[in-house]
Write a structure and sequence with these properties.
41% helix
């Protein structure tokens, strides 16, 4: 029994026209898509297009429609009719079959394709009933055999229009119903197959009205067990009054997006991100929420925080200095060891590196160390690590250099080729270098003593093989170093006392004797009186 069908959103002008048309007993049809470049006129009331090349008949029909309150246009040819139909919305089209440029049933097909709601009537002088059947199959509302009374044509229009409008309305209702069903099916599929728990709660008691299987699985309940729970029995981080306040806030238009803890059936607590808002269901407001289990994400975040804490602890307490420089070479971070070794706080390190007041450093041989050869600069330029670079820096007022062993490695991001920064670590080995220097001096002193002393000295293996002799023994026994290295220590004694010398040496090795009084023999066979003593050591 409705008078008109209007699709939302509604244009104000269209609403007024529709009400006016309904009040006058006619229906105002919907707009149609227009051809590109052809504006469509939207006129109140009913609009009729008469397609007839016989001017007298066309005028007669026009007057009949005008008397009934229609707006009427006349087109004497198919071409003019097509142009008029493309520019104006017509409710009724009366089409003659015999037209000067083409048969009228071609217009019937075109008109209904462009505007299915238009009532199209065919008229002809041809008595062939097959024509009438073809037109009806193509969608004609009626056909008339010439001659006919104009009043008869008017009478055919109203039932045809009502029938066409009802069919259009039924089709529209079927389309909308199908769309609603499809959307409901899509929602149901998303609801059931969602990887997150989806729960619709009764806002009055916070008990579930609907929920998907994932909501049960997340918390370890059966469907029946879950259906009997209230939200306060699930939420482990909020009191019942806080849960109530949150639901009320959502119902009053304040969507909620928050993290909480939910208690599983086993008692285990799970981290859950909740997105909640109010929706209408069966004519009432309900609490719709999505529960996303973020327990694993929270564990990863906690592990990351712990890793960062450990890294920071190592960074702050390690003995080696660490500097971090960005892609521009600016120092952005330095650990306490770096500040201690370089004798400056982070801000001072930054300024000194930029204006080189901390430097110029030197190489191990004392030559200048150019800035472009610094380990960090080389890494930023090449993208490759640099290892074991010795640098001498002079942060002290007394002018004493500190010697550093530096390593630099680039920081690469996965999607970037150029380094985004560089880490430089350096070990202060000044004390070790000082010890090494002292050891070298000591060794040099020992060698000078060894080479210049007048006593004869040889170095042997534990078995007695000669390894080295000082200049005094080579001079006095007339041996060169090569000849001496091929001998056994007993070979330096005359053959007649070698056995006795072997026994004395064995006693000295055991600590039973201090010396051996037996003479040596030079390469010429001359005896050289000596007193031989033994010491043990490393060579």
């Amino acid at each position: 029994g409705f008078s008109a069908w209007i699709t939302k959103p509604i244009k104000q002008t269209h609403l007024i026209e529709t009400i006016a048309a309904a009040a006058s007993g006619v229906a105002l049809t919907e707009e149609i898509p227009q051809h590109p470049g052809a504006p469509v006129q939207r006129l109140p009331g009913l609009r009729v297009l008469i397609v007839e090349d016989q001017q007298e008949l066309a005028n007669t029909l026009k007057r009949a429609f005008l008397v009934q309150g229609y707006r009427v246009d006349v087109a004497p040819s198919a071409a003019e009719a097509s142009m008029a139909f493309g520019h104006t919305v017509y409710d009724v089209a009366v089409i003659a079959y015999h037209l000067p440029d083409s048969p009228g049933d071609g217009l019937l097909t075109d008109f209904l394709a462009l505007r299915p709601g238009c009532v199209c009537l065919m008229m002809t002088t041809d008595p062939d009933p097959d024509l009438a059947l073809q037109w009806m199959e193509k969608g004609a509302a009626a056909y008339l055999h010439k001659p006919f009374l104009p009043e008869y044509l008017i009478e055919l229009c109203s039932p045809g229009r009502r029938e066409r409008l009802l069919k259009r309305t039924q089709k529209l209702l079927e389309t909308r119903t199908r769309e609603l069903r499809e959307r409901d099916l899509q929602y149901r599929v998303l609801f059931e197959q969602s990887p997150d728990g989806v729960v619709i709660l009764n806002p009055e008691n916070a008990h579930p009205l609907e929920f998907n299987d994932q909501a049960c699985r997340q918390l370890g309940y059966t469907w029946e067990e879950f259906a009997s729970l209230s939200l306060s029995e699930i939420d482990a981080s909020e009191s019942p009054s806080e849960v109530r306040a949150r639901i009320d806030g959502v119902l009053h238009g304040k969507p909620a997006d928050f993290d909480t803890l939910q208690r599983m059936k086993s008692g285990e607590l799970r981290h859950v991100h909740v997105t909640a808002h109010m929706i209408e269901m069966d004519g009432r407001s309900v609490y719709h929420c999505i529960w996303r289990d973020i327990t694993e994400r929270k564990r990863v975040e906690e592990a990351l925080r712990e890793s960062e804490r450990r890294y920071r602890e190592i960074f702050e307490t390690m003995v080696d200095g660490v500097l971090y420089q960005d892609a521009a070479g600016q120092v952005t971070s330095a650990n306490p060891a770096a500040s201690r070794i370089l004798g400056a706080a982070l801000e001072q390190v930054q300024s000194r590196l930029s204006d080189q007041s901390l430097f110029p450093p030197v190489r191990e041989d004392g030559s200048p160390f150019p800035p472009e050869a610094y380990p960090a600069a080389e890494v930023l330029r090449t993208g490759e690590p640099v290892h074991s670079v010795v640098m001498g820096v002079c942060p002290r007022q007394d002018g004493e250099y500190r010697w550093l062993l530096a390593n630099a490695v680039p920081e690469h991001l996965p999607e970037k080729h150029a380094p985004q920064g560089v880490y430089t670590t350096f070990t202060d080995f000044t004390d070790r270098k000082r010890v090494e220097k002292a050891l070298l001096a000591s060794e040099e002193n020992f060698r000078t003593f060894f080479e210049t002393i007048g006593d004869m000295i040889v170095v042997t293996t534990p078995e007695g093989g000669l390894l080295y002799g000082n200049p005094a023994i080579m001079r006095k026994l007339k041996y060169d170093m090569e000849s001496l290295r091929g001998l056994h220590v007993l070979d330096l004694h005359p053959p007649s006392v070698r056995e006795e010398a072997g026994g004395i040496f064995a006693a000295m090795f055991r600590g039973e004797r201090d010396s051996c009084p037996l003479p040596l023999i030079d390469s010429a066979g001359e005896l050289v009186p000596v007193e031989t003593r033994v010491w043990f050591g490393q060579w």
